[in-house]
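Entry for glutamine complex. Fields follow.
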Amino acid sequence: MKETDIRKALQDGSSYLTRAGAETPYLDACLLLAETLSLEKEQLFARLSDPLADTPHDQYQALLTQRAAGVPVSYLRKRKEFYGLEFYVDQRVLVPRPDTELIVETVLEVTDTLPHFDRIHDCCTGSGCIAVTLAKLHPGIEVSASDISEPALEVFAINSDRLLSRQLETYASNLLEAVPGTYHIIVSNPPYLLSSEVDTMQASGWPEPRLALDGGDDGLDLVRKLAVQSKSRLHQRGYLMLEVADPQMETTVAILEACGYGDIEVRHDLAGRRRVCIGRNGARS
Ligand code: GLN
């Protein structure tokens, strides 16, 4: 008999995760205990003095142990919120990041001002957070998606089914190689970390798929290829929108310029970092 209550379990879990070096130990403990008890996090706080039985306590402990070993909370809860929607996630895909909401906002801005820009392709879609969100918020847009990883496309299908109750067109494809058709907008959050960064992350047990993170020596291998491939897949004046990291922005702009994109623009994320690079196909009309 461990004789514990919810308050004590949260305190103990939080101290354990603090010692393990977690960045947000109390929040993580709350989310994991809420998960164990099938409650919302807010409901936990109304029950702080409730006793915690041995079985859920053991389950909670097992989740804390995995979290301490570096498994993201989103993988343990099998879900992550993105743009107000709840996406299913597991180790087959990158966990959606809040920074990527900027691409969704940028697309919605363009489609609001140019309503005939209604064929959009999301390359390297992963969980589908960009494509499914766009299709959900803007049912008039025809959204398709691709990923080189078949397991990632299985996760995409789960999200498409849960959030849209239908399947979007998807292609298993190395970038745009097997993607047919032409588009008004091509968006991508491609793998853009440096191989050396991914080496370090994986050496410390980081569980996200390498394929979703590794962009080569300077992180921009896929950006270079995609900038070239998109030229022939975009309508005249169509948009290419790419997420990269702040220190890669000058090079990304130079890549788009060298490929002949015009009206190049850089957008900043909520932390003020340069995050999205936009270019338009063809000369200004
Ligand atoms: N933004 C992610 C990170 O910093 C990387 C995502 C990506 O490579 N597309 O971990």
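NOTE: The longest strand covers residues 234-243.
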